[in-house]
């Protein structure tokens, strides 16, 4: 049985933040779940996927976040409790349905999990999605630990149904990926179907209807404000004259700093767990009771500015500080030492920081950036394309493992901003410059938002080459299903959509399907694409070896070794491919037979044919 | 209890996330308040993976610069790189088996010999426990058991209030049967190394 289906109320177990969210949803009787995976939210759907195989829970990996939210909207409007999960930039994709779903509202509770990524551990930006609560008018909850992740998720469903609005829970990487104790509650039965009650003059957001809906949203906003004033997740802790305001992960740093500095009696903390709508009366009460205020919030000065507005409206002459000199940055995530120091400085507390050991004698250390795995098919595709297109070609890339093609010696990533941008920006680059353009996109990303770009490329007669790196899975985020995956090894029977058929169906005439480990043939196909006067697509098909191993689809090949008698130490193998299975021993290149998966790409690259399969 | 802040540093694939999770499980089984923090995603592709375990009356899931009570390094270069987590009272437990990054292989930088890395750490911190953990894992016939060796050494170091028996109870319930014997052996040999 799945760990999160453990029916032992009262037991305390160790859960990942994202597991706690999934458990909270199950304790609320969630019956319908959708997502597009994205770090740091991916473990929530991973658990739902497994749970759906042994319960009545409906789960799907949707094509992208917009689709996930719209699929979820159908279920929630019909009356099922629904959860939709995504990372922060996924919310941008989902923002179109989000804004008007807020108008029409829902019937069954809908909770949207939004995972922000301060410090950009796995993202292209660190936007602060608390703004989406303001933009859409939807309530936002911000848990601070694993127990709250579970409890607030559960309560968010009730709140959603009471207000008739989706509720957004905002986590950050640090909360999504902590493990902590969670006391389990009771699991609720899963409702498997609903009956949609037609109300076209409510659910069809044409202008005449939507004008009224906007008014309705503002009324719901007032109701939500009342709940945030009286709810248990916003509270003033302590009675001291030094005011500190904290939310999310920062609340933990504040709590520990107060205890480390021994200033508990001097401090009042305003904890904002139900952070939008802002509990303005509670805030005013807090501001009136303190002498000065420090606002601790990662990223944007949102609470800080709200509090300044509350102070102004209520004529409270208290100094409020958050971002800026002597306080906090708008950049990156915070840590306990940083928060302790800022609190000590702002309130004038004497304290002795930990002293870091002297590392002035440590030499410059070689970097260890992430790298494509040994036997990763992307490496072979990159090599083949570079042989034909060289280094002056513009290489727009996309979001996935293959973004690591940025690093030398591959150095074949010139531009990326978001999912799908490789294809559409390729249209721009190829028109605006005299350079050749080859865009790279992964299979999952192609379905997510590459298809519309390719329609644009064909329709507007753009001329460049798109390489679709089809490794049979959504590799970067942990091997999730996408529409092009054969799902039978994962125990589900979903319809597989052929990328080649899609591409041909969109009107691309020059289409090449290659196996990248066959370098010669791949290079020939790349050459043909370069000679073609129009839009070309190369589909490079080879399993992600990690995925193939995990799903029993891995075809074992003999590892390779370097024949010393033949090797003349050109080092093309290591210098051009930088496969992590290769290393230098003395003056010679060696292959780690435990890491080598036998893809044979280095053997094809070696000018001396000195790389050979190991004879057992 | 006194707060303990532990940092695990490893190269993607060496298994520090599992080690830190199991330690968290052991702490919970002893009613020691704990919070474990992990980083998933892009960094795991051969990059540096850091995890942290905090024990006692503490709610922050990360360890700031200079604030580690114990640094457990799975690779000597990465242990040295993480020196900024240490203060003069930190105990450093490190594997000495080198895993040079590919940047070295393509001529971007020089890999510092493990002996030199160790000598740069020794004398600056309270104690350094260093041994070839990969050799032990090979010896027990399970090259993937490095994380068990390191976990053993942590418990053997006596720096945290979790004993070998409690830890082994967790290992026994959360390890696949085929690896249990070799994992426990690797753990025991790690304990011995640190004793």
Instruction: Please identify the oligomeric state.
Output: heterodimer
Largest interface: A-B, 67 and 60 residues
Structural class of the secondary structure composition of chain B?
alpha/beta
Head-to-tail CA distance between termini of chain A: 41 Å
CATH superfamily of chain B: Pyruvate-ferredoxin oxidoreductase, PFOR, domain III
Largest sheet of chain B: 6 strands, mixed
User: What value does the average pLDDT of chain B take?
Assistant: 95
Give the averaged pLDDT of chain A, no decimals: 97
| SSE arrangement of chain B, N to C | EHEEEHEHHEHHHH
The CATH class name of chain B reads Alpha Beta
Question: Which architecture of chain B would the CATH scheme give at its second level?
Answer: 3-Layer(aba) Sandwich
Shape of chain B: globular
Helix content bin of chain A: 25-40%
How are the strands of the largest sheet of chain B arranged? Answer: 2-3-1-4-5-6
- The CATH topology of chain B comes to Pyruvate-ferredoxin Oxidoreductase, domain 3
What percentage of the residues of chain A does DSSP assign to strands (E)? Answer: 15-25%
Can you tell me the number of structural domains of chain B? Answer: 1
Number of strands of chain B: 6
Number of strands of chain A: 22
How would you describe this protein?
The complex is a heterodimer of chains A (616) and B (195). Chain A has 616 residues and is α/β, with parallel strands linked by helices. In chain A, strand 17, helix 18 and strand 18 form a beta-alpha-beta unit. The two termini of chain A are 41 Å apart. Chain B is of the alpha/beta class and 195 residues long. Chain B has one domain (4-194): Pyruvate-ferredoxin oxidoreductase, PFOR, domain III (Pyruvate-ferredoxin Oxidoreductase, domain 3, 3-Layer(aba) Sandwich). In chain B, helix 1 (16-29) crosses helix 6 and helix 5 (133-139) packs across helix 6. The interface between A and B is large, with 67 and 60 residues. Strand 8 (178-183) of chain A pairs antiparallel with strand 2 of chain B.
